[in-house]
């Protein structure tokens, strides 16, 4: 009996060993460093932040320059994965990319299921219109009329803004910002909901388009990198990196390159 009691006690003791004694799988930061690759979900059609050069097709923008600096800090290559805002959270959860960076505004809805880095920028909402309509459309009230059509990119802050601000105009959702802008140029919609940085940048580079009343920015919001909630070590690294590029002037140089000497 004594022998049986001893082995029973031993078995119970082994079962009670803390989980920390067992080998732990590598976390996401370790996996990225081991693979030498950081997979980044980006929309590839968001002016200023992530877009294709019309001449070469190469990705360019504020976020692309910043991500190259992040890759150097990590000592890894950046692999860009095309994503859509309408499936952003689902694709993040499905492990299609490690992080998402595409001018992503911080929101309560996203923060409920994912997490954000420190902000690296802020913007608000502006309406993009055709330059020929600058005298016709000066306010949201001018646009919120029966018979007028408002375009927006589905699945993000722009969609929420459209549904909140427009009650009488007809709303039209698009799978990308690029498609919404194409329909605006074609005359199929009368205005497009845009983030303020993208609207100002696009208007500067396309004389057919204008940012409506750019001095009146709606719903300011911070822009940050989106991660899974359990990727804490990767989040810590990215937050340190954001502090560093802000302090050493790298972030300011990228901002000036794409947005001029403004914040």
Topology:
Layout: H1 2-15, H2 28-35, E1 37-42, E2 51-52, E3 59-60, H3 62-74, E4 77-82, H4 88-93, E5 99-100, H5 108-113, E6 115-116, E7 121-130, H6 140-143, E8 149-153, H7 157-165, E9 170-174, H8 177-186, E10 191-195, H9 196-205, E11 209-211, E12 218-223, E13 226-227, H10 232-247, H11 250-259
Parallel strand pairs: 1-4, 1-5, 8-9, 8-10
Antiparallel strand pairs: 2-3, 6-13, 7-10, 7-11, 7-12
Structural overview:
Helix content is 40%, strand content 21%. It has helices spanning 2-15, 28-35, 62-74, 88-93, 108-113, 140-143, 157-165, 177-186, 196-205, 232-247, 250-259, and strands spanning 37-42, 51-52, 59-60, 77-82, 99-100, 115-116, 121-130, 149-153, 170-174, 191-195, 209-211, 218-223, 226-227. The strands form four sheets. Strands 7, 8, 9, 10, 11 and 12 form a six-stranded mixed beta sheet that branches. A three-stranded parallel beta sheet has the order 4-1-5. Strands 2-3 form a two-stranded antiparallel ribbon.
